[in-house]
């Protein structure tokens, strides 16, 4: 029986994870990445228990945990630095089987690429067209063209695969706020716990990375278009202006950030698609369900997508039927998580003083156990084939 072939468009977290899952089930996989190399720059990433479970299915959970830091406690503070809520990571592990792990995105990408044969990775292969010739999907790219049995669109928010095969789908929608991401240099005494501080139309968060570094992120409600992937000292100056007088340890963290290492991006999510599949093509990750980062679930949901897709394709020659099963499993869940993340972002970005006061009071009065229980539908996911699949 000839080896089945798949083309994965996009070499980010979701695309590489899907390629690994398919490769381990005997597929011949190529990963087309438009950038000249497979890497990520500039920021950390939080992997919640559901993501670690997906990585466990891929045989990579131990490797990834060793690259990251496990945060002992974290929570939300108000603009004066007072705790509104706190979460014990040990309780996350007890409830969901894995902790919250934070690592640099570049380290995660490296672990994923090392799990694939080198000849399956095709950097510098920007896709110019995806079309159906009546027999197979044809993917035209800088290196030529591919005619695989399966096409996986994992090429992000502005997916070329989605534009080609879902031409009537609505484009990304601006969330109403922009974000800065940065990593500090090593700190002599890094904060012992992470936190997100909620202000009025602004937020600042931080969490530990290995080696005494901290991953920091900030948001502000601003019109779209002020920053399209911009970076550098002007963004650092803007951060100092907005957050330099916030409660400790925010000023010290900003002082430890290299001025040219700040990334800024406007935040978008994707309106719900009627289907993640079309014939023998499937979307996953941001290409299917881009979401705001308020729940830290973008990459986590992409990892879930990857192992679910491979499971649905396992043991059946009918690719189109397998993809319909994938769509039924993934679309309702990911679109629900997208909506939930958008709601949390709207709450976090409140700026009217009476609304901010009520928000902070509600957060302070909500028991920790209720917060954890509310996260169970997101964090309690199990892979298809496991008892209790979510």
Automatic annotation (TrEMBL):
Keyword Transcription regulation: no
Keyword terms, alphabetized: Monooxygenase, Oxidoreductase
FAD-binding domain sequence ranges: 7-167, 276-341
Domain of life: Bacteria
Pfam families on file: FAD_binding_3
Entry GO MF terms: FAD binding; monooxygenase activity
UniProt-listed SUPFAM superfamilies: FAD/NAD(P)-binding domain
Entries under InterPro entries matching the protein: FAD-bd, FAD-dep_Monooxygenase_BioMet, FAD/NAD-bd_sf
The keyword Oxidoreductase appears for this protein: yes
Protein name per UniProt: FAD-binding protein
Organism listed in the record: Streptomyces phyllanthi
């Amino acid at each position: 029986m000839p080896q089945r072939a798949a083309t994965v468009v996009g070499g980010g977290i979701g695309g590489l994870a899907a390629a690994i899952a398919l490769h381990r089930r005997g597929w011949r996989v190529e990963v087309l990445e438009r950038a000249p190399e497979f890497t990520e720059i500039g920021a950390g990433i939080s992997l919640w228990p559901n993501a670690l479970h997906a990585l466990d299915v891929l045989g990579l959970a131990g490797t990834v945990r060793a690259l990251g830091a496990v945060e002992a406690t974290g929570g939300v503070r108000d603009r004066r630095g007072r705790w509104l809520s706190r979460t014990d990571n040990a309780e996350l592990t007890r409830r969901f089987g894995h902790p919250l792990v934070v690592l640099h995105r570049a380290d995660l990408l490296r672990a994923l690429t090392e799990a694939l044969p080198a000849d399956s990775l095709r950097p510098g292969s920007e896709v110019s067209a995806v079309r159906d010739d009546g027999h197979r999907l044809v993917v035209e790219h800088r290196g030529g063209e591919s005619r695989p049995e399966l096409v996986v669109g994992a090429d992000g928010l502005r997916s070329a695969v989605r534009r080609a095969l879902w031409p009537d789908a609505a484009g990304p929608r601006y969330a109403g706020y922009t974000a800065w991401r940065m990593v500090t240099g090593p700190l002599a005494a890094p904060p012992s716990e992470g936190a997100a501080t909620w202000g009025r139309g602004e937020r600042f968060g931080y969490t530990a990375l290995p080696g005494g570094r901290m991953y920091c992120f900030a948001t502000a409600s601003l019109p779209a278009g002020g920053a399209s992937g911009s970076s550098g000292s002007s963004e650092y100056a803007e951060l100092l202006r907005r957050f330099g007088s916030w409660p400790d340890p925010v000023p010290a963290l900003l002082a430890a950030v290299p001025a040219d290492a700040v990334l800024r991006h406007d935040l978008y999510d994707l309106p719900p698609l009627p289907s993640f599949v079309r014939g023998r093509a499937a979307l996953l990750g941001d290409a299917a369900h881009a979401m705001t980062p308020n729940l830290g679930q973008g990459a986590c949901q992409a990892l879930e997508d990857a192992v679910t897709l491979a499971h649905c394709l396992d043991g059946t020659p009918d690719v189109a039927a397998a993809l319909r099963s994938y769509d039924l499993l993934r679309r309702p869940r990911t679109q629900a998580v997208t909506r939930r993340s958008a709601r949390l972002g709207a709450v976090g970005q409140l700026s009217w003083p009476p609304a901010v006061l009520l928000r902070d009071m509600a957060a302070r009065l909500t028991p920790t156990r209720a917060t954890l229980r509310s996260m169970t539908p997101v964090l309690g996911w199990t892979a298809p084939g496991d008892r209790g699949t979510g």
